[in-house]
Specification:
By secondary structure, this protein is an alpha+beta fold. The protein is 17% helix and 32% strand. The strands form 2 sheets. Strands 1-2-3-6-7 form a 5-stranded antiparallel β-sheet, sandwiched between helices. A 3-stranded antiparallel β-sheet has the order 4-5-8. The chain is globular. It binds nickel (II) ion (NI). Nickel (II) ion (NI) binds next to helix 2.
């Protein structure tokens, strides 16, 4: 196990489309994911995508603790999702604050689909398919964007709402957005 260096905005690995994982059960993939989990917990963050640790592979990990889930929504346990695909369930989008471990010290308001279905594989190669909403849906969309070379500021509609975390006191709605992914 190891805590990995996190790539920051500007590094080319964050701009390229990551490669599909040929064998999710390969020992090297299991080792990478173990290190990603340790890195995410150390940061700490809600999620992490493999390109953020300089591995240009289609792997994301995330969790949504109860304290971060929207009212009435279930938390999400730690999930490893390999070669994920996302499908919006309806056109509705909502604005919400996001941070990113690759864009440190900043937060921004980002539109995301309210409800999505996602599919992927776990470390045993077994299929995962879920329909989710709220923070769970937001985190998955944020992480999967990393696999296509997209960082959240590129999704923002109003760059006046790209702020330093030190100024979050001026944006009460940003409370609870302390964690990045
Ligand atoms: Ni991120």
């Amino acid at each position: 196990m190891a805590i990995l260096k996190i790539a920051r905005m500007g590094h080319p690995v964050l701009r390229r489309r990551a490669d599909a994982v040929a064998d999710p059960t390969a020992p090297a993939i299991r080792q990478l994911v173990a290190d990603m989990i340790e890195t995410m917990e150390d940061a700490p963050g809600l999620g992490l995508a493999a390109p953020q640790v300089h591995a240009s592979l289609r792997i994301v990990i995330f969790h949504v603790p109860a304290a971060r889930a929207a009212p009435g929504e279930p938390p999400a346990g730690l999930t490893v999702l390999i070669n994920p695909e996302i499908e919006p369930l309806g056109p509705e989008q909502s604005l919400g604050w996001e941070g990113c471990l690759s864009v440190p010290e900043l937060r921004g308001v980002v539109p995301r689909y309210d409800r999505i279905r996602y599919r992927g594989l776990d470390l045993d190669g077994a299929a995962i398919e879920r329909e989710v909403s709220g923070m769970h849906a937001r985190v998955v969309q944020h992480e999967c964007d990393h696999l296509d070379g997209v960082l959240y500021p590129q999704r923002m509609g109003d760059l006046r709402l790209l702020i330093f975390t030190s100024e979050m006191r001026y944006f009460p709605a940003a409370d609870g957005a302390e964690e990045a992914s």
